């Protein structure tokens, strides 16, 4: 049974993840996970924290001599900033008086978390609600990616728009609409956008927001290639692949919207323009000349790329803070607090989106193919393809 | 522990649902659930099936003399059409030769389900992948709604657009943007749209599609009022309220897109225009003059209406069918099959959306407040409000 | 994902079960399930209710023309006694005044359930806490049994002792200790005991208890043959096969004790007398000349019969009732209530034990081998055996 | 939602646990957890490993200044022996040739785990199947214990017998059968047995086994005091408190048997001697003069001590090894492998049993009372007691 938990405060000693249910004998490389962590830390528009942290995992269990054991895998990412926070974030009581954070930031969990958990010090909330937690998911996703690659599945992301600056014509979603070259360009762009001119325009937009003490959101696209026909099911509402993709994407902090395939666009036209015709090729394989369904029909993968578009709201922490409330006094105040933050995290959010999609596909794949060793899972997979 | 399962084929004898974990002593009325089932069956653009079925539940367990017992609740909805399908859908083997369905409809589970489950007869797929299954969820939601009303929580839906025909200016999302009168108008409109002129325009659009043998999708909005601050948590990715709302909405058949609050719109502007300022009122209550967050901040409800907008693709079953494949011969064909269907289900999908939101809120509420009897749960809830 | 829920009150209209996650294409026969239900209703020492009920299932979903569809399966068992209880157990409010049950029976959920759920009428508790609920599990188990038989797995039970009357020398637990002939004798014995003389002694003991207005418990043994090496895992505490067997057996009403293999006996000797030596046979197969482990080592099946011994306390409902309390008055009373009941249910409990073991093995088997159709699951299973 | 995962190999760098769902604001002390870890490491009959390890936790998340935050709690226990195993157990590939373990020990997961996971080196199995993993559970239980103590619940264990040497007359199970003084004596006994003479006899028995190169099992009892009426439910088979206690106890490595309350003894007599009469005291409280039910009736706690007796088989690793098989050659061998081990772990297993019971009670308590802060949970609990 594939499952995982993540833990860790933003300024605590480390992030810790336990991942269970990956088959034994799978070759896993720390370097592949670390590369994903670095990709998450990059992107134009990031703040000072990204310069402090050089995220890298350590395997503390479940992996031996480069292969999974079948036992739970522990991954740990040290917080290099911890040295500056040891007293403020110590697990044990400390002598020094700590000044509590009491001014809440609009758009964050500062207010809701304080009420829910009965905290007087908003620090007790923001340490976990911080999107530093997404590094945990990227690490787990980096592990899943290594499983998926055994099955010929790869997951990519790129940025479609930032604060309204984006592609002017809609991009296609068939296999042919993407290329190795394109993904290389994405990885080289500080905006994770293949189009160099667009990258520059986006950067200019972010700079403008920064000058205004403001922040930007945007839209990223995640795409999975090589997903076999048959993952997910309509049998029960919570087992649909669309359900799980929805769950995964909407779980990312700051995400407020998502689409599978043509999404909202399908609501503006009629059925005959939307549905993807199925063709049987001469070699017996299946194809769809269009991919408006984004690779999922009836809650099940249909062999086309899984395409998801995800809307990220602007970061709530503004250099020119909005009015708010001080929870200690209960008074309305003109400016909430500013805590070091980024101006735009859309490229990073895309990397988190990749991880979440990799996680969802791993779960669905292991559910269908079973297996306790990678040989067994692969054998089951191959015999299904040949059936 | 709140959980439920649904079962039932579209042309089988009935739909059956088991719901567990509602507190004991809750007054529940069959009529309230039936009213929701009727609302799901209505709306302009529905096909012939809706005339056959008069959905109504029967409680088969868990309710005695009008109150819940604390034991699992069984709800059953008879399929009145069953008499015409007894042989074709019999659980036992039958003598007669059954002609299998082999031509798959684009946009449906026909193809993906057949490959996944190894079915030769597509009927074995479509009976469960049919959106008749959503009646089950509406029934479960109708039960949850009765729990929520004890806590002052109500859930509504209305249609924002059909095939691009919709409100021309964006609607607000604060409490004040909605009214009892508006919801009454929604319930009276065959399009579930408060604006009478818009209702007529939508109907005209559907008629046009129908004439073309085509189908329409659209966008509906679900809103929950009275949700207390503090449901859901950022503590783990799968416990966020946004995660669960995402899961719930993306699980609805034909849904391809969703937004919480201002959604994609937030990606087109900057942070200072998006985040909802918190105010403390003189009576000690909290308010936000705007509700771009759609009632969820940091994965937790913030006391404002929960607002979700959901995009429904056009129905895949076209009266002028698209080209497809015959699975029996493996040959490409010019026209897939037509099975009796609707032209537009957006109003009905909105009712399903209400049910799913009611389910999600019930789960989150019981998780926070616990309790084995409604008195206990209410007592815990009230003491939290006063804390 | 294999999961199921059961529902239904003892004197409600029916018992309802939804079972999800069995592969498609599996041949299932109603008659096999009904046979198990009849076996549960039999056994010497049962009361009048068993004469009223002739339990039989109806498939209401998930099965078509004798084969599973892959969609959730609904099973329903009518309560024939319902006609006598329609008013007292009606889901809707009724006009007539109902006299509440207020005198609690020691050993039952009468007291604990009333306090937990805040019920004034103990009837609201006992309708679900009644062991009639176990018919639901037997039905689910009867379905699982049909899956398992495809993999050569069979599950049996017999009674070892009743009120201390039982086998005088311990029985072995290797494959050789059991035979087809023995199981035939078990099925023919009203005590579900292969030894005819012992059957008579047990009956005499039950008669004696009955004369005294008293009740008997006893010990049954459940055995599963043909379980492949490798089900369950030590990887996490809740995934051990022993954990799941423990869960399953201790969930049976009135069960207060259980042992896997030699159980408590292993605590009275030393390791060299307990552990089962592994041998490799000339044909490459594995064997253990003893089976003190009861087929589970390190939380994983080892290829030997799974053997579980389970202790059932005497039925709490005594014809000569024990002193108790009247919850309405809060007064101590000399005699609690008598509600029609059995004198001894150990043979029936054994049939429930079979069902629970079949359920546990089904879950563990599907987890390991995956598959959405029975062909796929079998193919995966066979290729594992050959690896 | 309370849940946890454990991870870590026996000779890896550390054990890691993530615990989610404890309310915020709970005071937790590392020292209390460490004391439990020390109690697990003690007991007469332990081997050399216990001298190397001085288990102590480090909180890596979820706790700040001595109180829980409501976010997931990470606990880590370093393996001091790791320095000697860095190469053999390294996560990364190493240059040196590693000699695989291939001779399997009867009674362990060595054989079953190797077949299941397809491992050639039994080391890949035994590192996780080792009962070192139980230290993880003791740590989690030590955290739960601190929650439970807020509700007046305490959990203890003691040893009833070792290799047949034990109490000669059965011990009672009512509150009065236990005393503070008795538990103090237990904590001071190297056998965790209150009776000093019995302690000596047990030690003599262990010494004898040791001289023979053999091992001993035994029986321990776990008792929880102060559990309120109403935890667990008969509503669904897997929510019974007995189910969860069964799951918890049977999950402990080497446990082969368990009883709740009088257990198997109840099967040897009749109902009138077994069931615990309920009395209402003059102060309005409830009592049962006997406790044969072990505190659970109808799957729900009844206010009496929860009493569980658990049978632990002798340790499988014998200094005079049993015959076995070499998996590399497939040959039957006269002696399996000896790896440093204990002679008797029954006292330690009792401490693990305490932890598992504390975990089960924590889950059931939080399910009933809800709450996101300890104040909220306590408030809900107190108002239930007064209802």
UniProtKB/TrEMBL annotation, chains A, B, C, D:
Cofactor binding note from Swiss-Prot or TrEMBL: Reduced FMN (FMNH(2)).
Single Gene Ontology MF annotation: chorismate synthase activity
Residues annotated as binding NADP(+): 40, 46
Keywords: Amino-acid biosynthesis, Aromatic amino acid biosynthesis, FAD, Flavoprotein, FMN, Lyase, NADP
Catalytic activity: 5-O-(1-carboxyvinyl)-3-phosphoshikimate = chorismate + phosphate
Gene3D superfamilies in alphabetical order: Chorismate synthase AroC
EC annotation from Swiss-Prot or TrEMBL: 4.2.3.5
Cofactor(s) needed by this chain: FMNH2
Record pathway: Metabolic intermediate biosynthesis; chorismate biosynthesis; chorismate from D-erythrose 4-phosphate and phosphoenolpyruvate: step 7/7
Keyword Transmembrane tagged: no
Family designation: Belongs to the chorismate synthase family.
Matching HAMAP family: Chorismate_synth
Quaternary context: Homotetramer.
Protein name, per record: Chorismate synthase
Organism of derivation: Dictyobacter vulcani
């Amino acid at each position: 049974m594939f499952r995982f938990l993540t833990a860790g405060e933003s300024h605590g000693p480390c992030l810790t993840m336990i991942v269970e249910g990956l088959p034994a004998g799978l070759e896993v490389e720390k370097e592949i996970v670390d590369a994903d962590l670095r990709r998450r830390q990059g992107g134009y528009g990031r703040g000072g924290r990204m310069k402090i942290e050089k995220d890298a995992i350590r395997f503390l269990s479940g992996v031996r001599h480069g292969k999974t054991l079948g036992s739970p895998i522990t991954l740990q990412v040290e917080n290099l900033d911890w040295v500056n926070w040891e007293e403020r974030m110590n697990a044990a009581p400390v002598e020094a008086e700590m000044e509590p954070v009491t001014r809440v930031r609009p758009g964050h969990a500062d207010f809701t978390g304080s009420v829910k958990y009965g905290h007087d010090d908003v620090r007790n909330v923001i340490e976990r609600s911080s999107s530093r937690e997404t590094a945990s998911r990227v690490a787990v996703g980096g592990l899943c990616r290594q499983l998926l690659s055994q099955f010929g599945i790869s997951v990519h992301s790129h940025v479609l728009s930032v604060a309204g600056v984006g592609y002017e014509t809609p991009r296609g979603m068939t296999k042919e609409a993407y290329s190795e070259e394109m993904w290389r360009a994405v990885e080289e762009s500080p905006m994770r956008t293949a189009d160099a001119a667009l990258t520059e325009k986006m950067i200019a937009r972010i700079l403008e927001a920064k000058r205004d003490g403001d922040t930007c959101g945007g839209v990223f696209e995640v795409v999975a290639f090589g997903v076999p026909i048959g993952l997910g099911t309509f049998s029960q509402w919570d087992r649909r692949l669309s359900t799980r993709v929805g769950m995964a994407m909407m779980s990312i902090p700051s995400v407020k919207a998502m689409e599978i395939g043509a999404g909202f666009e399908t609501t503006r036209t009629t059925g005959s323009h939307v549905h993807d015709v199925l063709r049987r090729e001469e070699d017996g394989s299946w194809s769809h000349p269009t991919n408006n369904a984004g690779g999922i029909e009836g809650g099940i993968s249909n062999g086309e790329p899984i395409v998801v578009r995800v809307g990220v709201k602007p970061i709530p922490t503004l250099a020119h803070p909005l009015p708010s409330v001080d929870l200690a006094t209960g008074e309305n105040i003109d400016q909430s607090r500013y805590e070091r933050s980024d101006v735009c995290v859309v490229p990073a959010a895309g990397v988190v989106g990749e991880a979440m999609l990799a996680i969802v596909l791993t779960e669905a794949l292991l559910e269908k193919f079973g297996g306790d060793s990678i040989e067994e899972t692969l054998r089951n997979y191959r015999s299904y393809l040949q059936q």
